[in-house]
Amino acid sequence: MSMPLRSLPAMDDVRWLSEDEQASWRNWISGTTVLFRTLERELLTNFDISLDDYAILVLLSESPGRAARMSTLADDAIVPRPQVTYRVGRLEKAGHVGRRPCSSDARGTEAFLTASGIELLERAARHHVTNVRELFLDHLDAEQFEVLGTAMGAVHEALAAREAKRA
Hints:
Blueprint: H1 19-47, H2 51-62, E1 67-69, H3 70-76, H4 81-93, E2 97-101, E3 109-113, H5 115-135, H6 142-166
Antiparallel strand pairs: 1-3, 2-3
Helix pairs in contact: 1-5, 2-5, 3-4
């Protein structure tokens, strides 16, 4: 069920961005767009997996028994729900993930990491973390990184609460 569109505020009621806010916003958008495109390209080129695939593999590797319900993957991977089934299917076809009935609820399905998936993740993680450090972390000092993490944690929390209300 979709929520109705909010009515748009009158032009005089819009809280426009200041020049500094606009500059910061555009820097954030440009930086994250180029960063994510570069990280995605690296994973696709070197391992034939996307950032979403990588996120699913990581979540499975960190789950008890290296398995998780499909619904849990959809909630935790920050991958759009319709994409989780597609992504898991693609990883399954490549032999990196399997699917089986959920052990705690036969109505559900869980994905699990295969030996091939573990090996792929071990190789991809070394490459990905090196890229994250070189492309991102090495350009920030510890304080900048902490402030960014705190800020984006607040944004994520607010948006997650908003999404929960919509569900």
